[in-house]
Design goal:
This protein folds into 2 domains: 34 residues, no CATH class; 136 residues, Nucleoside Triphosphate Pyrophosphohydrolase (Alpha-Beta Complex). Helix 2 crosses helix 3. The strands form 3 sheets. Strands 4, 5, 6, 7, 9, 10 and 12 form a 7-stranded mixed beta sheet that branches. It is α+β, with helices and mostly antiparallel strands. The protein is built from 3 helices and 12 strands; from the N terminus they run E-E-E-E-E-E-E-H-E-E-E-E-E-H-H.
Amino acid sequence: MSVMIESKQVYKGKIISVRVDTIQINGKPAIREVVEHNGSAAILPLMGDTIIMEKQYRHPIGRELLEIPAGTLKKGEKPEECAARELIEETGYRAGSLKPLGRCYMTPGYCTELIHFFVATNLSKVERHEMDEDEEITIVRVSVEDAVKMILNGGIEDAKTVCAILAYAQKLKE
């Protein structure tokens, strides 16, 4: 178990903050850089056995990824509220049913982000929805079976998407 010696915030941004912690492990000081994140919600939207997915450009890796919709929790927002909001914003669909699928820490070695997964069913198209102005999203429909194959052959590389699809596929087998 480590003991906190000192913690200093070095950056505060729109989505993340960064702090540098000095901790003591086995009696010796160690430095840990920590990305602080409010947490997020990701949605596996289903129409029958088809997943409503999105292609989105991701600047840090310089290309598009095939993903499920997701977003950052606003301060005080419940994960279910975030999931419902993000589904509408990113896809234009409202969930008639939104059920928890699980949760996980994305990168606990340096980040506090806890992502909550939901399965959205009984989808209905909303009349109007506004995407965030800094997002460019293309909707793609993929069967659950094909999505699992895409994960196994490297066609889907986004961690949240891999986790949600494989968890859902496993639940289908149970």
